[in-house]
Amino acid sequence: MLPDTEDEEKWLAEGIAGIQHNAFYMHRALDSNDLKDALKHSVQMLSELRTSLLSPHKYYELYSITSMAQNLAPSPPVMNLSNNPPHHRNRHRQRPFGHVAGSILLGQKLHVGPGIRSDTNLEARLPIEGRDLVVGSDKSELGHRMVEIGRGHGFSPFRLKINSRKFMHLVLLGSVYIKSKEAPAKDVLKDLVEMCRGIQNPVRGLFLRSYLCQISRDKLPDIGSEYEGDAETVNDAIEFVLQNFTEMNKLWVRMQHQGPTREKDKREKERSQLRDLVGKNLHVLSQIEGVDLDVYKETVLPRILEQVVNCKDDLAQHYLMDCVIQVFPDEYHLQTLETLLSAFPQLQPSVDIKTVLSQLMDRLSNYATSSTEVLPEFLQVEAFGKLSNAIGKVIEAQVDMPIVGVITLYVSLLTFTLRVHPDRLDYVDQVLGACVKKLPVKAKLEDSKATKQIVALLSAPLEKYNDIVTALKLPNYPRVMDHLDNGTKKVMAVVIIQSIMKNTTCISTADKVEALFELIKGLMKDVEGTEDDEIDEEDFKEEQNSVARLIHMLHNDDPEEMLKIIYTVRKYIILGGPRRLPFPVPSLIFSALKLVRQLQGQDGEAVGEEVSATPKKIFQILHQTIEDLLSVPSPELALRLYLQCAEAANDCDLEPIAYEFFTQAFVLYEEEVADSKAQVTAIHLIIGTLQRMNVFGVENRDTLTHKATGYSAKLLKKPDQCRAVYACSHLFWVDDQDGIKDGERVLLCLKRALRIANAAQQMANVSRGSGGPVVLFIEILNKYLYFFEKGNPQITSSILQGLIELIKTEMQSDTFASDPSADSFFASTLRYVEFQKQKGGVIGEKYEPIKI
Q1: How many helices and strands in the chain, by DSSP H and E?
Q2: Cis omega (within 30 of 0) for bond into 56
Q3: Could you tell me the pTM of the whole model?
């Protein structure tokens, strides 16, 4: 029965504790040159590895800790392996003794996992050279020398009947023999790698060959190594590692077939945990100095890829391809790109090729950006074309690849292209076009992961170029976007707008505006099949506000082109329906008014004759646009926009157009504005705008001011009436050089406001039994003071004195309700009068008759 995780963790902890305890005493004995005691603790330490209770992953963890403990031991001198004089013996030093003795004893018994049977009588399964090595027969001089080494360490030679524990012993003896340099390293390594075939149990074989790889990595006959022989020895080193890698991969693949079918998932998990044992060979191979580009291209890479493709195991193929990409230099990948890419279509359909290919493209793009000197190499090898073709072949080979995998590959290719060839827009568009061909012809993507990758594909050019104008030059960009669902189109539209706002990108032609609005049309109009209650109100407002902000980024100094832009924008926003119109229309209006003021500075007559973009034409567009807004309905907004247009027409000296906008504003006020608070706001807007108008003749101005005064007196609440009426007094006294100054009508408005304030006071007294606030009288007093200072002959000091006395009387009456704000307001007003009296001069003389 297999142990559960909790028991396995407990056994692992106990084993680690035992190893650390004995390693401490072993190191101390070695420090004291006590070889016998060191060997005793070494045996005890390594006995912790003689267990069948741990899974391969846990056993490997225990094995790694043991190796680490062994490697901390000091290195004693190697024994006399030759007839050299004594003073030459210490020149040959071996690896740390703990590592040597431990490895010998580790070979005593190897249990790496539950349910793994021991290999017995393996002599017959070994090659002839291996048998000679094992039994130490007279057939092999190498065997004699290795037996001598073993006997020198205090171990008897073993003969004939062989089990797996002897192989690690032999690997170690071979390592020591290589260090003695009594035989060429290539011959010993060749014998060792062949000998390891004697262990055919997958897990045991993996650990044995992993140990061989580990212990021989510093003894390879590489260039510059102390074991380097003739010119061909580098090839022997490469062949040794490749052969060990091939055999380890075969053992690793065979692991999936060991044991019952019901435990297949468990075995796959164990295989995944042991994958680094196989990958270690590739790492060693990448560190060999003799593996230059030519050797890698001609020998190493083809041999590795052959093994990867032929093993036909998805786990092995994915891991090993990833290993190749990670351990070898980027320069090698670039120069052997075609060979490397040719292997991908041959991998199993279940291999996650998109991840491996993405990592390759990511590494190559990092390599390209590391130095400008390497960029010509990418052009020389035509890296983009080869990657693009390879992706197409992979997709064709893996017919069952999900659509998200296809899009992910093109996202990686596009990222590579933008980093390596940012100036090649044709490459970028080619990637988008290739992706479109692999997407469904008409159907929208329903896979959320695929949709997310499409958004990444579309966002990449925006992030790279920081300019939507560049993206608008890509014909396939909108074709990709068409495959998004309605919700994601809105998200992508917001991303596009945010990019424009962040980079303050100006869209300067009508054609580009048309292309842009086609991309964001998901925000511009209602989508069929989408119910109103499905849209969050806050999200909706934020989306529409973003569209409104976008309109301010559409500009061209040429009036003709700007007018075309305005026409284009209006065409799209009118399709938005009643719910959307109130958001973008004000932005369009003010953008058009900006053009009006631009034309205002030019010669109006010449412009009107020669250029189609005239203020009159623009005002016609504005009038139509505001009329469209009335279908919402949004009368308050429409009224404000009418008044803005009227003021712009005033600046252009277009009296008929200004009068028409005012007329429409009054019509809206009469027919559409029903709320009392909205009426108060609207009438003050009308009064304020009309006060600034100077284009009207006497008749038109009288008509409009009469309307404004009449509507002011008809407001629902008396205080609102009073404030609107005294505000109308400014319509008859404009403080400009040519402004109207009708003192009598100003006085009439103020007197009318006083009557309304008095009526409000009486109504408050009747309804509440106490006098109403006198703040209205104080406000009117301030209006009197304003016109008194402006020189209105109808406003005299006696009128002001009477009004002050009236306010004092009201505030001292028994029915007056105390109002601190009114008291403070009146006190401030009196202080102002006193201040003006003390100034002296003409102002002082005017205020002198007033008694506080």
Answers
A1: 45, 0
A2: no
A3: 0.73
